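Quick look at the format.
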Amino acid sequence: MNKNKLPKQEENFSDWYNQVIQRAELADYAPVRGCMVVRPYGWSIWENIQAALDKRFKDTGHVNAAFPLFIPKSFLEKEKEHVEGFSPELAVVTIGGGQELEEPLVVRPTSETIIGHMYAKWIKSYRDLPVLINQWANVVRWEMRTRLFLRTLEFYWQEGHTAHETAEEAEHETRQMLDVYTDFAVNVAAVPVIPGLKSESEKFAGAVRSYTIEAMMGDTKALQSGTSHNLGQNFAKAFDIQYLDRNNELQYCWTTSWGLSTRFVGAVIMTHGDNQGLVLPPRLAPIQVVIIPIFRSDDEQNVVMEVVGQVADQLSDLRIKVDDRTEMTPGFKFNDWELRGVPLRIEIGPKDVQKESVMAARRDIPGRDGKNSIEISKIASRVPKLLEEIQENMLAKAIKFRDEHILEPGSYSDFQSVLENNWAFSYWCGSESCEAQIKQETKATIRCVPFNQEESNTGECIYCGKPAKKKAYFAKAY
């Protein structure tokens, strides 16, 4: 096998994924087991995710703040479900400054507890509500099996934490933020997620309800790509978050939390990537257009580079890169930028200059079919439209792939076969026992129970055959 070639997805998807990340310089393994170093190109993707989400958060009235990395261990023990859910994943500090600490400190796995403590100090009256705060932070969860971006000991994310007067407001907030995630995933990342409700066994530790966006990866496995939790009054009661209501009576707040992490970078890689490497949607790509000059002599260089400058000026509103490396051949550059997933490559050589045109190669359509000749005078209008076409095509392609791999089996034996390489959309009676047996027998889990199912529709649970009112998506997952 050619060592310079990537493994093929269809032969070893996991190896393909790991090599794409390293060869495209998105991330590398850190000296601490299970941690990663996010390299500049990978961090640029995360910055674009941050920018898209941060705008949406602020448009819905949220503000950013920062809370400590260290949390007193006793805080986590105040909410029973929460501590039980996170205990196996905690990193605990017992020594500081050479001295044993009076109370151990937990390196935050999530911030509901310390933020709940602060909200109890800040909230006194209904006039203080709602509190709508988000923070961009790193968290630590001591995972045993790790994979770059998807599951690491330390990762980066945003976590929103809000407090409200009523249960209805908290539920509205929880669903609103799930809608924000869905909008971002579909319209910016071209990842066609399915929003829905998590089962009781899959919900966040300490939540009343957990909602999720689920995405299908290129190997048909599911990836939980963002979650939004209605915490009810569980944390408010644990941390005494109370307010005087409009009748001057003391009430507990209703709280929520929601988060999306660098795991989403993995979602983008595995949803769109191909055997040449990354394929990045234009709205998310750090570099939207790469311009590659082609010349053999100094005279050709002077002529070509003048036109390259003109083209670059016309595209200055976009994220562009001129690859003027002289030590690399054009062919090497083509492969290099294909690996990095740049949506559009513009080639400019002496013949293009004579024709007053350029050759544009789309990353989403490999080979000749993806090449377009564009008149230089029309570059400023044509290229943005081409990027929009790429964005739309990537979403359509991902939707088609997903829908082709979601099946509705008629029997449990068919259900088991379907789950080898697909998702199953099947009736489920709501029993945790059936859910547990399915997981044990198929290694698949309920990804979500989607919204907007007609109550009048009924069927039989795929496992036990008892009457069921809701269908759920079942799949093997990362």
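Next, a different chain entirely:
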Amino acid sequence: MVRWEKVTRPFLRTTEFLWQEGHTAHETEAEAEEETLKILDLYADVCRSVLAVPVVKGRKSESEKFAGALRTYSIEALMGDGRALQAATSHNLGQNFAKAFDITFQARDKSVQHIWGTSWGITTRLVGAVIMVHGDDSGLILPPLIAPYQVVIIPIGRENWRETVLPRAQEIQKELADAGIRVTLDERDERPGWKFSEWELRGVPLRLEIGPKDIEKSQVLIARRDTREKIGIPMAGLAARVAELLSDIQRSLIDRAVAFRDEHTQRVDNYEAFKEMLEGRPGFVIAPWCGDNECEAQIKADTQATIRNMPLDAPKPQSACVRCGKPATSEAWFAKSY
């Protein structure tokens, strides 16, 4: 897909991007709504369980919803710099597009009716989300479930390392590959430290180092990309231990991302405090909102923040709107965003 962006950002807002999109047609509004929310749940689960990116599920405001849709739902993620990212959307289109394009079906009572439609999509901006949620100053940190290589083996030795260390490294590579682990062996004639830096930059979850002394001790040294912890592990049962570490890294990344989001999420019902919290790039600010478009627009003008969504399971607020003081109808999540 191609769209023309005034301001592009690598991975997040690009002129050309890949897009997964779906459309369905339904007999009733209830069926369309069920499909819309089912896909939203699917997208949220993929982000959390595969990408280790926690998201907030909710409904968009009228001004932020997809043009022509009856209702738009989104999942919103918080990047490492405190800005929010719309990770995916799912739209209940109602019958608006069906009536515009005369998309009809024969109902059970033989009458001709317009379908109830849905539309939903997710894009390669999630590549950017993974980079910005998990990365650090040394480069990428990839969740093991999506890492092209989950383990990199780096032989260490003197001039004759190809004769003394490489054969054992190749055996370990085969052992891990046979266990279903995505593994690569770096045989290049470069200094080990140079290799360490490059594979850290590329975000490989585990680095396995093996040298002559390790072979003597029947062990290897494993470095985790997420914590930089180094662990000596016996060669016996190595594949099973590596699999355990990969699972632990996957859990660790989602736990760390959730903790960061929670630490950068604040609640407020006072407008002056609300504006202060949104200075810089603070994360999510939760506040009661009246549902009025003009009030929403003024908040954006005052703070540059937008309503990311209104969580589906949020209780109805009992307090007044954070800006205008009218009765609040929703608990809205505000943030500056990409």
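The mean pLDDT is 95.

See the schema section for token definitions.
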